[in-house]
Amino acid sequence: MKKAMALMIALVMILSCVGCGGSKTSTPAATAAPAATAAPAAQPETKTETETSAASNWPAEDIIIYVNSKPGSSGDSVARQVSMALEGSPSMNGHKVIVNNVIDPNGEASWTPVKDGTPDGYSMAMMSTAIVSAELLGNSPLTLDDFDWLCGFFVDPQWVTVPADAPYNTFGELMEYIKAHPGEINWGTASAVSSDSIALAKLVVENPEYQFNRITYSGGGEMLTALLGGFVDVTICEYLDIAPNVDAGTLKTIGVMSESRIAGHEDVPTLKEEGYDIVLERARGMAITKGMDPAVKEQLTALMREAFESETFQNWMVVNGTDIRWMTGEEFRQSYADHRDVLADGLAALNK
Known about the structure:
Layout (H helix, E strand, L loop, with lengths): L27 H30 L5 E5 L6 H13 L10 E5 L6 H8 L7 E5 L2 H7 L11 E16 L7 H10 L5 E4 L5 H12 L6 E4 L3 H9 L5 E5 H10 L2 E6 L24 E8 L5 H16 L1 H9 L3 E6 H22 L2
Helix pairs in contact: 2-9, 6-11
């Protein structure tokens, strides 16, 4: 399903020439000769100096990352890791990376400032797959084509999560329990049309013999509260959201919706290993304003790579159950296009 896609952005750089006035002399010939020889030589020299100066001075101000979710959320945490990794870096020329939370589950209010902004490299969007789900549901006019895609840091798989004292330790055991106890299990989802709901719809359509109750909530936080309170028996979450409770011994993960097991969490099998071909992964990374100077884009990419390769960011990604994977802008965008196809198929299943 994956297709190679190349996004090439070209920007014509317009440089202004600075004219030089001649000084007064008593001999006309003395002023004519320098004007004829000096002007052509000065033009390319001025262009080279301007380009060199622009490259060495960037960034000349703080860089803002726009996030569509609240402080402490998955996307916000990634943006703040980037900010911390680059704090004090010589590459930042004394400036900072600032996280701006413009809370909008559909992303329109959050990412439009980047879409419509000046392509100078001082604003980025921390993207989530909400851009494709909101578009499919008609909740936002934004599309993948509205942005230039800079890079991706990792893929965030979804984890099947249950109370620590649940009588099943793998996804296969959970499904066998559901089969033996029809209608007993309450399965919580973040919303009626969230990614976890769509994955669940695929599961139900492909395995109609499993009967359970799907309980929908108004967001991941409310869903997690219901799981901790015993109102539901199982949920699908990002590991970052459940890590404190897993560490505290109140929750456990019994399956991961990824292609392969996750580094640092090798004891948790994938659903594919259990015989259920369900993969639900969401890449995290940056998108930028279209039309950026290629030289600035290259420097911005280098900054993101510097953050990605920092020890603190690498450790954070392992602890939080991500599939660490540097992606080019083209690869990052393609992952969202593929995710859009998965969601479209799932929505079709929900409507059956």
